[in-house]
Every structure is written in structure tokens, then in C-alpha cells.
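Researcher: We're teaching a course module on how sequence relates to structure. For the next exercise, students receive a sequence and then see the predicted structure as C-alpha cells, so they can try to spot secondary structure elements on their own. Here is the exercise chain.
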Amino acid sequence: MLSNLYKLKLMLNQQGLFFCFGGPISQELMVGIGDTLRSKMKFDDADSSTIVKVFSMFVEQSQNIIHYSAEKTPPDAEKPELSNGIIGVGFDNEYYYVSCGNIVYNEVVGSLKEQLSKLQIMNQDELKQYYKEKRRNDTPETSKGAGLGFIELARKSVKPIEFEVQKIDDEFSFFSLKTTI
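Model: And here is the predicted structure for the students to work with:
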């Protein structure tokens, strides 16, 4: 077990990841991690605009895990429901990036792929227009924000968003997303 932690650290370093968290994610944890990320990036002399964008993408991707992860710890009278996932922030080839992943139900995979594939091929003007259109539409009952989060991520990313879905079994898949700042 202990030697595996060192191997994990080496692998994270190779990917340029300077922050990685896996497990139950809550709003409170997100705030604390966000503060740590800002401090780390200030220490690295990142400009304030970049720090804000990284923090914004970190929050949006954390929110996606909180709202949409199929892997949740059940709430009880004293503890809130927690959603499980993994999120990382790194620096690679002159860009910061934020990556997240979580288990999703297979029934949502088709719509995820469709929406994200559409966003990948849009330019900034198209993304801006699409965002405006989606804001005017009513929020779908199954969504916690009409899919605006993905559009915002695509608008803020300097490269097309990347995603991958890996089937786990007949009920679940693992969804991964990466944005570049």
C-alpha cells in the first residue's frame, strides 16, 4: 500500500497534477480546496485572471460531481448526502487544466456525449449564442441548471473540452472531463 502511494505521486507528477482529491465531495470541502488552490497559484505567480478562471472551473466541475454522481453516500439525520468523484488541477505545456471524474448511470451517457460533442466543435461566438439560447429556455426537470455549466466550461476553456466515458457494467459508466485554462 505505501509503495503504491509513491507510484501514484510519480504518476500525478508526470501528468503535471499539483492537486488531486478523490472521495466524497461537499460544498464545504470545495471552499477549503478552492482557497488552497488560490494560494498555490499565487505562490506560483499565476496572474489573477488565470486564478479566477481555474477556481471557477474547479467549482463548476465539483458542482457536476455533487449534483450528478451516481455514487453517493446516503444522508441521515446528522449527515448530508455526499457525492463521490475525483478532481484534479494541474499545469502542463504552459496551460493550467482542471479534470474531474465520477460514476454516472448509463442512461445519461448518450445525452452527455451528445451535448459535449456539440460543444467541442463550437467556436467562441457560437458558444456565446448557444449559452444565451439555453438561458432563455426553461430548465429541464432532470437538470440542475439547464446544462449551462458545460457551456460555461467550454466558453472559458482555451482548448475544446475533452471528455471520455468508460463503461463499468450494465448500470454504470465512469465519466471524465478536462478543461484547459
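Model: If you want an answer key for the exercise: The domain at 2-180 is CATH 3.30.565.10 (Heat Shock Protein 90). The chain has one domain: 2-180.
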